[in-house]
Design brief:
The structure is a single chain. The relative contact order is 0.10. By secondary structure, this protein is α/β, with parallel strands linked by helices. The N and C termini lie far apart (75 Å). It is globular, with a radius of gyration of 22 Å. The longest helix has 26 residues, at 335-360. Helix 2 links the parallel strand 2 and strand 3 (60-65). The chain has two domains: 3-218, Spore Coat Polysaccharide Biosynthesis Protein SpsA, Chain A (Alpha-Beta Complex), CATH 3.90.550; 229-360, no CATH class. Strands 1, 2, 3, 4, 5, 6, 7, 8, 9 and 10 form a ten-stranded mixed β-sheet that branches. The protein has helices spanning 15-26, 46-54, 72-81, 100-110, 150-155, 174-179, 191-202, 229-248, 253-268, 288-299, 302-313, 317-320, 323-330, 335-360; strands at residues 3-11, 33-40, 60-65, 84-89, 95-96, 116-126, 132-139, 146-147, 170-173, 206-218.
Length: 371
Amino acid sequence: MKIPFTIVVPACNVAGYAAEMIASVKAQTFPEFEAIIVNEESKDGTRQVLHEAIAGDGRFELVTLPRSGSASVSRNYGIDHAGGEYIVFLDGDDWLEPEALARFDRLIREADHPDIVMAAVRCWYCRADGVWEPRECLGLGREGERFASGVDAMLADGKLEHWIPGSWLNIFRTGLLRENRLYQVPGRMHQDDEWTYRVFLVAGKTAATEYSHYNYRCNEQSITNTQSRKSIADRAANAESVLQYWRTHDIPARIKRPLADYYCKNFLHHSFFTRSRLGRLNPNRPSCAERREMFRRCFGPSERFAAYLAVARAAKRSERLMIPVMRLARCRYGFKPAELFFNFIYYPAIFVFWRKLKNAGWLHRKAPDAK
């Protein structure tokens, strides 16, 4: 009989957290699971810590792979070797709630075995004294929501506009991933950004819960909050991937505009300039020449820019306004002026001033009755 869950854990240089992670898996009140722990040649003794924490528990498999540069190879290994009906992704420095699998098992049976279960995570931040404390919970679904498809889930209540792409936020039916060859790009940082929406686009039944099953350590120095040459290069590769996906797949008409908005905001317009995800100028960004090189690699060739135009023209007006800026950035001396325009005019106008007006209700007030 097939076991219900496989927990897949990429673990690289997390010796300080690995024992706590393993303890959280062992503490599951639902014992019918297997755990595939993938250690990528850690240099801090992670493998030894994992081996001691597992302590011969037969439900755990400890695998060592060469360094790949991201969690993708480890997760792909888990997808290929999982014996469970569902895959739960867990990073090596995070931990699960004790009731996580029990709650998922009950929901899966109630929802008639959906392809995806959307859940929530609790975010932990490290204080100045070194103590981790919870500050917020993140999730997209509402308790009890059921959808006929992943597309329906993405469209409900504007979820795609506030999309959270973390692999660990949801659990996935193993067959869905294998049958559709839904693997993450090996070695690429920010791989979740490019992977998660692809899974939802082909998924069938999807269920949601507001239960925070996952505890996520928010590291201010992580790849999601800093920029480096590899980070920019991999964001450029993500942009190329989404343009390729748009060209080669038959995307349902009802999601084309929301998906184009998502592409523009998360891959095509914001990835190459200097602001971080929080909208602040990033002091650790690569040089202007490096950013320009990555931009031109992605948008320089005419066929790629034509693919970009097809996506941007399908998006909402605020994203279409960036088309002339992107044209300018392709010019010989145009990247820096385009970047300045993005940072000091476009971004403040669209994502600060306009949003404040919208939140204050000024954009939705009815006109006074005529007298």
